[in-house]
Amino acid sequence: MKKILQEQVVAYKALNDVTRIKILQMLKLRSMYTNEILDEFNITQPTLSYHMKILSSANLVDTKKVGRNVYYCLNRKTINHLIDFLSQIVKVDGEQCKDLNCSK
């Protein structure tokens, strides 16, 4: 359980950047090569590599080397696990919520 929580912390930290969020939004539409992602941003190749390393280390994206190029795709399994985890956090027992006078 502790390992799973640590992996989720790494993933949520990776989401703490506008550029990385935008990259994930692009990859949800289709998998892309490094140069295709670069064309969409005003950043250098080393900066993109930095962001992709963080996303890859968090298992939010998968990579595939094709010749000299790197192909990136969204890791939907990891993202779905994060969504499920957050869903469990916000689920509240109706009686408990009523007792605490909190919103559902």
TrEMBL record:
Pfam families: HTH_5
Lineage top rank: taxon: Bacteria
UniProt KW Transcription keyword: yes
Keyword Lipid metabolism tagged: no
Gene3D superfamilies: Winged helix-like DNA-binding domain superfamily/Winged helix DNA-binding domain
PROSITE patterns, sorted: HTH_ARSR_2
CDD domains xref list: HTH_ARSR
Keywords: DNA-binding, Transcription, Transcription regulation
Domain HTH arsR-type: 1-97
One term of GO molecular function: DNA-binding transcription factor activity
Identification of the protein by name: Transcriptional regulator
